[in-house]
């Protein structure tokens, strides 16, 4: 087993650990450890809400989830010899949930969760159709996930980190804050907001204290969106065996990782659409000196997907075009087309007896494939959603006999203002 360089005690909160990570991006957050190119190491990772979401049949915790506290990131880890302009190579060697024998009933210890977030607390891809909070608990058996809240479905998880990236430079951080502030200014009262500005409240900044903490907390970027440093990309194909190439913006690169997922569909459409968990990840790092200029990587990571994961060979696919629900034509709006494809799939799954919320959560958690299928045929973009048919324990394809009635069980826990 690789050396454990960032241990976590499951019985303690994120800020009470021997080594404290962070939940904001800033170049001045000190590294918690230094590794050398070629090193392999293990990192423990806290579930992104630090235990605020519990294994029960209520969605009150999702309704009031403390978004100001996320994400709980392990790191930063400095890589010896890394300089701005290099490419950092990160190999994902292994990943898994918290061992069940560890103390404390946290997500990852045999279970995880998926949530639909309320419009006034994060929202989601289909927040206009699903404005309230819902939750589904998923139980793990080996690599398989099932849910008491969504009967008739089981699938092999594609375990992956939702968030991993390098620290921004001072100039890059400044550009993030300026461009996102300009976007917020176009509609400052929007719910959910257009972007999340720096927020000192609930900031966790590693070992920083005193005036330095206050300065960094006022400048540091929130971790919710993906950016040029990688960050919260939520790419389900970052599985075991993946190799990721991150741009380096500061001395040491300062790599961080968090937001582990047991499974996720493309898009993580419910906002907390993945099956969230705490756990461990084993990494190996290396460097390509001056790799950014040599390979034309001016921003954003590139990666080689891992060759491990569930093997599904049959899919039922749903399409959507860039026409709104009330019949307005939009010009090559691929985002809208993907929304319509998701709604198409939700309507279809509802015909078997699932609630629309159960169907929405299936699309977020199961390993669906989302694709932009046509982006040149004016005026309609076409997007598609592919659902593996084998995840259902009943026939899901259309037949002359009509849909098989499925017992949806008690449904998913719901909470509204």
From TrEMBL:
The keyword Hydrolase applies. Gene3D superfamilies: Acetamidase/Formamidase-like domains. This is Acetamidase. Its EC number is 3.5.1.-. It holds the Pfam family FmdA_AmdA. The keyword Cytoplasm does not apply. GO terms for molecular function: hydrolase activity, acting on carbon-nitrogen (but not peptide) bonds, in linear amides. Keywords: Hydrolase. It comes from the Bacteria.
